[in-house]
Write a structure and sequence with these properties.
α3 packs across α4. The chain is built from five helices and five strands. It is of the alpha+beta class. The protein is globular. It has a three-stranded antiparallel sheet, covered by helices on one side. It has a two-stranded parallel ribbon with strand order 4-5.
């Protein structure tokens, strides 16, 4: 498993993966001391993340290999179809899954998303338009949505 850390405008990001695909994109507290070379298996992903943060990319084209349960993978796959700059509520996502009673399970699966930004769980908001939950922190969620042109009236309640 290859690992690379880099500084984004929102803090340090850890990218993990191998030739089978990206397994993890996470915000971390510190930039570990390591070499500056990017493993070949992660180079395209790091480049595309940098383009995204600079405003030059709206769609990612890297192979993803998230590790999770079948249910989690189904939910993460639904998120991959949510376009740049658009949001969806947990309830509406549950409808797309086919079971509105599964809203808590859907939210839990979203919370376990190992590949932040590329699997755009930051685009899932509360039914009332508030920003709720994000593994990278609500402030980062707000910044990601603003980067994607989301309206200014985002509520962090």
């Amino acid at each position: 498993m290859d690992i690379h850390y880099f500084e984004s405008p929102l803090g340090t990001i850890k990218v993990s993966g191998d030739d089978a695909g990206i397994t993890e994109v996470r915000f971390v507290d510190e930039l570990p001391n390591e070499g500056t070379s990017i493993p070949n298996s992660l180079a395209v992903c790091v480049q595309q993340l940098e383009e995204y943060f600079s405003g030059d990319r709206t769609v990612f084209d890297v192979t993803l290999n998230p590790q999770g349960t079948e249910f989690q993978c189904q939910i993460w796959n639904l998120l991959l179809h949510l376009p740049f700059g658009q949001t969806i509520s947990y309830l509406k996502l549950s409808r797309h899954y086919g079971n509105t009673k599964a809203v808590r399970a859907v939210a839990a699966a979203i919370g376990k998303n190992p590949i932040l930004v590329l699997i755009p769980c930051h685009r899932v908001i509360g039914s009332d338009g508030t920003l709720v939950g994000y593994a990278g922190g609500k402030e980062r969620k707000e910044q990601l949505l603003r980067l994607e042109g989301f309206p200014q009236q985002i509520s962090l309640l």
